[in-house]
Amino acid sequence: MSKCLFVALCLGLLILASCQQKTSAGYGGNAVLRLEARHHGVLIDSCTFSVKFNASDLPTEYDITQQSITDSSGSYVVISGLKKGDYYLFASGWDPSISQTVKGGMPYTIRSESNQSVVVAVTE
Fold it and tell me: What are the phi and psi torsion angles at 72 (to 5°)?
Protein backbone atom coordinates (compact mmCIF):
# COMPACT_ATOMS: atom_id res chain seq x y z
CA MET A 1 0.00 0.00 0.00
CA SER A 2 1.43 3.38 -0.95
CA LYS A 3 2.21 5.95 1.71
CA CYS A 4 -0.31 8.46 0.27
CA LEU A 5 -3.12 5.91 0.25
CA PHE A 6 -2.31 4.90 3.82
CA VAL A 7 -2.32 8.55 5.00
CA ALA A 8 -5.60 9.24 3.19
CA LEU A 9 -7.20 6.15 4.75
CA CYS A 10 -6.02 7.16 8.23
CA LEU A 11 -7.31 10.71 7.79
CA GLY A 12 -10.66 9.40 6.58
CA LEU A 13 -10.99 7.11 9.60
CA LEU A 14 -10.00 9.94 11.93
CA ILE A 15 -12.64 12.24 10.44
CA LEU A 16 -15.33 9.56 10.74
CA ALA A 17 -14.38 8.82 14.35
CA SER A 18 -14.46 12.50 15.32
CA CYS A 19 -17.91 13.22 13.87
CA GLN A 20 -20.63 13.23 16.48
CA GLN A 21 -23.85 11.60 15.47
CA LYS A 22 -26.81 13.90 16.12
CA THR A 23 -29.26 12.39 18.58
CA SER A 24 -32.72 11.92 17.20
CA ALA A 25 -35.46 13.15 19.53
CA GLY A 26 -38.43 10.95 20.34
CA TYR A 27 -39.40 7.98 22.47
CA GLY A 28 -36.89 5.40 23.61
CA GLY A 29 -34.93 7.26 26.28
CA ASN A 30 -35.14 7.98 30.00
CA ALA A 31 -35.92 11.72 30.04
CA VAL A 32 -39.11 12.90 31.71
CA LEU A 33 -40.61 16.31 30.89
CA ARG A 34 -43.02 17.97 33.32
CA LEU A 35 -44.69 20.79 31.38
CA GLU A 36 -46.78 23.63 32.73
CA ALA A 37 -48.15 26.76 31.06
CA ARG A 38 -48.02 30.24 32.59
CA HIS A 39 -49.55 33.52 31.44
CA HIS A 40 -47.84 36.56 33.02
CA GLY A 41 -46.51 34.17 35.66
CA VAL A 42 -49.96 32.76 36.50
CA LEU A 43 -50.48 29.02 36.07
CA ILE A 44 -53.04 28.08 33.41
CA ASP A 45 -55.04 25.22 34.92
CA SER A 46 -56.66 23.78 31.81
CA CYS A 47 -54.25 23.44 28.94
CA THR A 48 -53.45 21.25 25.97
CA PHE A 49 -49.77 20.55 25.36
CA SER A 50 -48.34 19.43 22.03
CA VAL A 51 -44.79 18.25 21.35
CA LYS A 52 -42.96 17.85 18.04
CA PHE A 53 -39.82 15.68 17.84
CA ASN A 54 -36.72 16.97 15.99
CA ALA A 55 -38.05 20.51 15.64
CA SER A 56 -36.96 23.96 16.73
CA ASP A 57 -39.58 25.98 14.82
CA LEU A 58 -43.36 26.06 15.09
CA PRO A 59 -44.55 22.93 13.24
CA THR A 60 -47.86 22.30 11.46
CA GLU A 61 -48.41 18.95 13.19
CA TYR A 62 -47.27 17.32 16.42
CA ASP A 63 -46.12 13.90 17.60
CA ILE A 64 -47.75 14.11 21.06
CA THR A 65 -50.84 15.96 22.31
CA GLN A 66 -52.01 15.70 25.93
CA GLN A 67 -54.48 17.50 28.16
CA SER A 68 -53.10 18.83 31.45
CA ILE A 69 -54.07 17.31 34.77
CA THR A 70 -54.59 19.36 37.91
CA ASP A 71 -53.81 18.15 41.41
CA SER A 72 -52.37 19.53 44.65
CA SER A 73 -48.99 20.15 42.99
CA GLY A 74 -50.39 22.23 40.10
CA SER A 75 -51.59 21.80 36.53
CA TYR A 76 -49.22 19.97 34.24
CA VAL A 77 -48.46 17.21 31.75
CA VAL A 78 -45.78 14.55 32.25
CA ILE A 79 -44.19 12.95 29.20
CA SER A 80 -41.79 10.09 29.90
CA GLY A 81 -39.42 7.93 27.92
CA LEU A 82 -37.89 10.67 25.77
CA LYS A 83 -34.41 10.69 24.25
CA LYS A 84 -31.95 13.56 24.09
CA GLY A 85 -32.62 15.90 21.20
CA ASP A 86 -34.56 18.91 19.95
CA TYR A 87 -38.27 19.34 20.62
CA TYR A 88 -40.85 22.05 20.00
CA LEU A 89 -43.29 22.53 22.89
CA PHE A 90 -46.66 24.23 22.40
CA ALA A 91 -49.44 24.98 24.90
CA SER A 92 -52.91 26.44 24.55
CA GLY A 93 -55.60 26.96 27.16
CA TRP A 94 -58.18 29.24 28.69
CA ASP A 95 -57.23 32.05 31.06
CA PRO A 96 -60.35 32.83 33.13
CA SER A 97 -58.82 36.03 34.52
CA ILE A 98 -59.02 37.66 31.05
CA SER A 99 -61.69 35.37 29.51
CA GLN A 100 -59.46 34.56 26.55
CA THR A 101 -57.62 31.70 24.96
CA VAL A 102 -53.88 31.88 25.51
CA LYS A 103 -51.21 30.00 23.59
CA GLY A 104 -47.50 29.88 23.01
CA GLY A 105 -44.59 27.68 22.11
CA MET A 106 -40.86 27.32 22.38
CA PRO A 107 -38.00 25.15 21.22
CA TYR A 108 -36.47 22.94 23.91
CA THR A 109 -33.43 20.69 23.86
CA ILE A 110 -33.15 17.69 26.15
CA ARG A 111 -29.44 17.44 26.90
CA SER A 112 -29.57 14.72 29.57
CA GLU A 113 -31.99 11.89 30.12
CA SER A 114 -33.29 13.06 33.49
CA ASN A 115 -36.40 14.64 35.05
CA GLN A 116 -36.93 18.17 33.73
CA SER A 117 -39.54 20.83 34.50
CA VAL A 118 -40.35 23.28 31.73
CA VAL A 119 -42.59 26.33 31.83
CA VAL A 120 -44.16 27.23 28.49
CA ALA A 121 -45.07 30.93 28.40
CA VAL A 122 -48.43 31.64 26.76
CA THR A 123 -50.05 34.88 25.67
CA GLU A 124 -53.28 36.17 24.12
Answer: -65, -20
- Full-model pTM: 0.80
Phi and psi at residue 14, to the nearest 5°: -65, -45
From the options 3.40.50.2300, 3.10.180.10, 3.30.70.790, 2.60.40.10, give the CATH code of 23-121: 2.60.40.10
**Cα 6 to the center of its chain, rounded Å:** 44
pLDDT digits over 13-53, tens only? 444 444 454 569 999 999 999 999 999 999 998 999 999 99
